[in-house]
Design goal:
The chain is elongated and about 155 Å long. It has about 220 residues and is an alpha+beta fold. Helix content is about 25%, strand content about 20%. It starts with about 35 loop residues before the first helix and ends in a 9-residue tail after the last strand. Among the domains are: about 40 residues; about 90 residues, Immunoglobulin-like.
């Protein structure tokens, strides 16, 4: 008598593979899930949902358009009034209408010329300056400076030995740039004063000299 076969030991710590025999009942098979069909169902449901949303949006738009059209229908459109023909109007008979501003047609008269200045109104220093600049031998602008010399007594002025045609006062008298020897001689007393001045380009120096007045007769 042959010994009985030893049955295989069942181990619960090892996972068993899923049954794949097609002869097993349906509830015991796990490989028959039809995923493509489920995806098709989801696509159809999603399309229906999108159609409902689009239909709702279109309905809202139509409602707003209807409300706007209803409001426009309530307000009557006012046509602009055309100007009526007036036979008494100035332009109806071919005569031009008078301008709104009558002064616009008047010629603009130029302002009257300014009156010439009176000789007494001119500044004394300006006259002196003009006379001084008329002195012959005026240096060029690049070598020109100016001297203003006043004295309490009329005096002759000598610059570098040359006598100036005018007596004091000298206002804005042009002199050459550099060191100049100046002598002032009082006409009434003959008193003289000598000094040197150095001028730079465009410089204006002012001097005020005092002479001893002549003795008064008793």
């Amino acid at each position: 008598m042959a010994p009985p076969k030893a049955e295989g030991r069942v181990r619960h710590d090892m996972a068993e593979p899923a049954p794949s025999d097609r002869h097993l009942p349906v509830h015991q098979r796990f490989d028959t899930v039809e995923t493509p069909r489920m995806e098709a169902v989801d696509v159809v449901a999603r399309r229906k949902r999108l159609r409902l949303i689009a239909g709702g949006i279109a309905g809202v738009g139509l409602f707003m358009f209807a409300v706007a059209a209803w409001r426009l229908g309530l307000d009557p459109v006012q046509e602009p009034e055309l100007p009526r023909y007036d036979p008494n109007a100035p332009g109806a008979n071919g005569t031009p209408a008078p301008p709104a501003n009558p002064s616009a047609l008047k010629p603009i008269t130029p302002p009257p010329p300014a009156p010439p200045p009176t000789p007494g109104a001119r500044d004394v220093e300006d006259e002196d300056a003009e006379e001084d600049t008329a002195e012959p031998g005026v240096p060029p602008k690049t070598q020109r400076a100016f001297l203003t010399l006043r004295t309490n007594l009329p005096a002759h002025v000598y610059i570098d030995g040359a006598r100036v045609r005018r007596q004091t006062p000298l206002v804005n008298f042009p002199v050459r740039v550099g060191t100049r020897d100046i002598r002032v001689v009082a006409v009434s007393t003959g008193e003289q004063k000598d000094f040197q001045l150095r001028f730079s380009r465009g410089q204006h120096q002012k001097l005020d000299e005092q002479f001893q007045p002549p003795p008064t007769r008793r």
